[in-house]
Amino acid sequence: MKLLIRIEEERGRFLIWAPLFFGAGIGLYFAQSQEPNIITYTVLVLLGLAGLVGVWLWPWGIGPLARALICVVLGFCVAGARAHWVAGPVLDFRYYGPVEGRIVAMDRSQSDAVRLTMDQVRLNDVAPWKVPDRVRVSLHGDQGYLDPAIGQRIALTAHLSGPNGPVEPGGFDFQRMAWFRGIGAVGYTRTPALLLLPPTSEISLAVARLRQKIANRVRAVLPGESGGFAATITTGDRSSMDRATIEALRGSNLAHLLAISGLHMGLLTGFVFQAMRVLMGLWPRLALNAPVKKLAAVTAIGAGVFYLALSGGSVATMRAFIMVTTMFVAILFDRHALTLRAVAMAALIVLVLTPEALTEPGFQMSFAATAALVSVFAWLRDRSRSETARRLPGWARPIAAVVISSAVAGLATAPIGAAHFNQVSHYGLVANLLSVPIMGAVIMPLAVLAALLSIFRLEALALWLMDYPIRWILWVAETVSSLDGAVGKVPSPPSLVLPLLAVSGILLILLRGREKWVTVFLFVFMAFSWAKVDRPEILISETGGLVGVLTDQGRTLSKPRGEGFAARSWLENDGDPASQKAAAERAGFLGQKGKMQIDLSWLSLVHLTGRGAETRLTQACSNGDLVVLSAWRKGDIPDGCDVLDREFLAKSGAVAIRTTSEGWRVIPSRPDDVSRLWTRAR
Question: What does residue 115 show for φ and ψ, rounded to 5 degrees?
Answer without folding.
Answer: -125, 130
